[in-house]
TrEMBL record:
GO biological process entries: microtubule cytoskeleton organization; post-chaperonin tubulin folding pathway; tubulin complex assembly
Keyword Metal-binding annotated: no
Source species, domain of life: Eukaryota
InterPro entries per the UniProt record, alphabetical: ARM-like, ARM-type_fold, ARM_TBCD_2nd, HEAT_type_2, TBCD, TBCD_C
An annotated Gene Ontology molecular function: GTPase activator activity
Annotated organism of origin: Saccharata proteae CBS 121410
Protein name, per record: Tubulin-specific chaperone D C-terminal domain-containing protein
Amino acid sequence: MATTEALDDEDIRLQRASAGLVADLQSSLGRILWKSSSTGNRQLHRGARPRDLDRVISLVEPFQEDPQLLDTQLKHIVPVLVSAYLEHLKQASTLQVTAKIVTISHVICRILYTLCKVRGEKVIVSFLNNEPRYLEPILDKFEEGLKAEILSWEEKYISLLWLSHLMLAPFDLASISSHQPAGTASKQTDIKLPETLPGITNRILPICIDHLSCATRERDAAGKLLVRMSLRPDMRKAGLLDALVGWALSFVTTTEEKISNIHQALGILVYLSGLVSSANTEELGTFIADIYKSCDRIINQGNLIFVKSSAVARKLVIKTLRNIVVNCLQAGPPTETFDTSSLLEDVIDFLLQSMGDADSPVRYAASKALSIIIMKLPAELASEVIEAILGCLNEDVFWERSTRNLNAVNALRWHGLTLTLSHLLYRRAPPTTQLPEIINALVLALSFEQRSATGGSIGANVRDAACFGIWALSRRYTTQELSVIDCKEIRATEGYDQAFSIPQVLALELLTTACMDPAGNIRRGSSAALQELIGRHPNTVHEGITLVQIVDFHAVGLRERAITEVGLKAAQLGQLYWKAMFEGMLGWRGIGSLDANSRNFSATAIGRLSRSQPYNTVKDMFDRIRKVLEGTSERSVEDRHGLVLTLAALIDACDCRSGLRDPSKGRSDPLNLLPEYLLELGSQWDLLDSSLNLSERAFTSTALRPELTATAICSFLSALAQFTFHIATLNPTKVESPNLPSGTSSQVTRLLNLCLGRTESTVLGAVSAAVRHSVLLLGDEQRDGLVQLWLSQLSQMTVRTGLRGSGQTIALGSIFFIQEDAMRLRITDVITSRCTTDFEVDARVVALQSLRIIIAAVAEQRPGCNSGDEVARKASVAIQAALNDYTINERGDVGSLVRLEALTTIEHTWKSHILEGLDINEHLYAAVVRLSLEKLDKVRLRAAECLQRTGRGCFDSPDILDASGVSSHEYFAKTLQLLRSDARPTTRLALLEGYTNSAGLGSESVVQATRQALAEKLVTISPETGGEYTLLHATNELLEVFKTHLSNDRVVLPLLEVFGFLLDMQVLNTLIGTDFKWRNLLSLVQKAHYKSNNMHKLHLAMDVYRGLADVPVIRADVLTKLTSMLLHPFPKIRIAAAETLFVVTWNEELKLRDWSMLPKNLRPAVEAVKSNEAHR
């Protein structure tokens, strides 16, 4: 199971964190907007750092998943931004935007835009100040920014929205003073405008017209502003509306692709759409007919095909046509100049065609438009349109009794039509007489699925629309209205008991969808619809309240939990739910799913479903799955994978019910499967000679996805072999060992060997159990033959074969438990040899997994295992080598994969106690301690978990053992407690080696945490005296680590970093005058970079020299070494040496030379430096 599936759902985490996010947002807004002045009053910042702005944005964006969580806090957030912007209007715009700072205007507008994006434009605009006195200041600032070209698109967008909000001023715009002369707008826009327009309008119009052609959100805001301004009574009286509508219509009439771009056309459509939406028939007058004709031209004329090809344009056209029809229907009977009936027919026809549009926004707009239009129609005419929609849904649907085939239908068209029905149900438009056909369509749509040419799934949007439809049906229609509908009238429900009520049938369909649909939003949508159905129609669904509590909105968020937990709990409420879940799991959403994990979950769930059923039902389950399997072709890999996994799960469930797996617990089967029943259910071996008699190609051909076949076969063999071994005790004619017939055993070994050829992790995970259980049913000769074959195959493989032989490696570990001591030692030698660096990293990882199986077998069979001690010794040596694997190649530190696997292996080994008494155990513990402090987070976390779980950790609370906890100062400070005199020297040295690795080469946060903890520890302990662990001990042990790994840059580089840090912080200066051997440190540093070409190491060495120059006993030697490095072959090193010398000597002559010159030209200068130092 993926790690993410073990965590809480994202929305639950958001709900829990929302209070903290909002509090952090409010405090961050205060810091980014305001500063304190010397007088104690707040002053507005003139700018902010981009990273501070990004942090504020990151606090808002998580609410996009659940924006309602912000509602109660918006009144504390948006007014703060509004007041800050109004204060900004008083500032002079002198701050220039750079990479390091942005203006406060940009900060405010970007946050406001983000809030609009998250919560919705209408909600945020309602908080904007609408006092008319701010109209001119905002407009002045806007024009100033446009002229200087310093405004971001977010600033333009918010300014246009705010200006449109201020257009609600209750008095004429002419009363607002403005310096703009009359007629300027006409000149700037080339639009014939009235001469009597006020100054404010003359200033705003050019801005709106310019921004209508933008490709970003400013276009919508400019359209809103233009619509609101042109519909003002004073502007209509002045003739602005007539002028702008005439200009827009003439643009559509005369434009073509050669002279216009798509953004200009979209701007015009935004204006016309907003105009028709906001104005009534009286205000628009004869323009309605002209606007309709313009839309018709866009739809039908060839010269406007460039406009029609845009999904945004089609959506705007649909919205415009919708409002035209609604206005006409509300206006009354048709007139001579405008035939409403003809218009209505054409628009409905166009909307029905748009239901299959390739773009989702267009289909959404068309479905909403058609539902609104139908609501305005007379009842008889509305019913005819609904019949037409249902007729479209019945096209190309083929039925085989109660089974429907939707492969021939258009999925996009179905989405649009289903969404239209859902909108109609939400508005309670359809009469109850049409509900049976509508419910039939919704049930079909709820399980809609098609496969694309590439094998992908199509139809999630159809199912989503169906969820909305059932939710609306439940909400808008009464229980009595639904109860009178007979299930026999609905063909899609023929598979159910015809005595069921409609709410009960819908509950069963919603249950299946909520538990099994591949899409999380559909599972949750079905859960919400089920809750609405049961809540609105009480006492119509069996165990309805309990069902709603089980199929919770949050519980179905994760698919595995929905299938294996929620579905099983629901099935326990009654046989009708059990049958619905079983049927669903057999379908395309269960074991027929495209996703391998979902097939696995469904197979497991079917096995668990069988545990509550009597023998006849379980037998029917076996027979049904076998029948389907017999009809499956060899190329139907996914179907066979799901079916075979299901058989394995059913067999495993029968084994659990038998009580033979663990006789000490007895039989707990309440339905009491009798021994003869168990024997009959266990006779599934004949499948190996029929449906599962697969060719070698099924396990080798990439096109047939052999990893799926191998995983399923291994699971089947494991379950059936284990069950067969257990039920042999029930057979009175059984022999001493339950061997398989020779024909079946040869087939088993053939399939096993074919599976061992696969290297995928899923197959390797299933191989172990398959081998372990299957070999128990084979004869001694067959078992020995298999072991010899696998050993031979591994011996023939070269050391550089990657994952080849992985299956045989796991198999040898799995068969270890049944071998004699000599063969056990041979197997151990082969496995441990593959843990060395002679083999590829992937092979080493698999070998450690096999070694873990061997260790478990030794622990289980001790003390009867004579070879156990020798196996444990060899295994511990291999584990130690793996814990120290730092292989690096072009992929990076691939040795970390081996170290991670070795940590898992040593944890199991310690828990098995097979290493107790071995000297190597101390070194293994030291290696794990080192890894618990290394720089890689995932290795550090895994090692810390290993220590804690085996009782060797030093943490009282497990909360610190997570990805962030093991990178904290608290974690590193706690681990330093091992630096004490009673700890073993090997442990202390390993701790310091790992610690310096993180303190020198870790991430920035890890370096800070480790260095802070180290400095605090070393400062608080005694320098030299006392019986406890002292600073002198710690430094000497650091030197010991240095000396031991002098030639290993992996250790030396971070050590140099740490020594440089400790010297810079004056931590080691307390050792001056003590017994510490400063010359040993100086000597080791010199040896570390002797003849080295590693620039990083050379720079680090000089950092250490800079600190060592403060030590009197070695100062002369340090200066001599630094002076000699002034002639180093690398120019950068010469420059760094000169800088270091200057810092420690303040020799001004060093500043007068160009140390990047050739060394031969620098010799006189170096001699002068030496002479100067000699005379000091």
